[in-house]
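Sample pair:
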Amino acid sequence: MALHAREQLANVPVIAHETAHMGQSFRSWPESYWSRPTYCPGWTAADAVAHLATGGDFYAQVITSGRNGEPKFAWGANSPAEAREARQAAVQKLLDGGPTALLAGFGQAGAKLQAVLESLQETDLAKVALHPRGRIPIGSWIGMRILELSAHDWDMRQPHETHAHLSPTAVPALLSAMPELQGQLLGLRVTEGLDGVYTLRAGDAAWGFTIQGKTVTPLQGAPRECDVGLSTDAESMILLTVGRADVTERLQSAALTITGNVEQGKRLCATLFRAY
């Protein structure tokens, strides 16, 4: 079930909190931390921070043009490919500047985006902003940014902490946004063979979808009857959705359970639970 505009705006302070907390952590890093490997293959911590910094700039630009009724790609790009190239150039510029540039870029982009988000009105949230994968309602970008911050914060800590967890401040906001985010992902990924009614549970929260061909329809709450039910804890649901948890391992440990048509449930997992 998609969040209402007021609920989406209520998650804006979470972005401010996570950005400030992460910035404080980055400023405390010794020089060696910037070159540490992350969960993402080939990425160092510096790569992840550069990605987050340019992401803040990207979000601020596209949300601003979208709320003005003229959805555009960021950095003056005219196509998804150009937008990706422009972002990579911005990433490289920050990396070339070293930790000082990375810290400044993360802080400035975060502040710029926060100012844009805090200026949004409920009537803005149904308008669309242009992402390389399509037009996405502005309200959905709030949850997307929380997910981007939280996932990459986890990525940077996971190889170096015995039991890395998502930010406890972000988890409730992410869980509230999961139906919306998962609906987007399924809409992009679904192919034939998944027709049915699905219930997903994460702790005490539950929601549902129907899939017919390549059409994914969110349901108002969890259906009483379904073809497939998936159940796990809140953090696992988030990590699975962004491809940071292994479906097979979670099933074997019973941290993730499938009820109803198990084979169809496994096909849904293969479609939904992969790299974001």
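The beta strands are 128-131, 134-137, 196-202, 205-212, 215-218, 228-232, 257-260.
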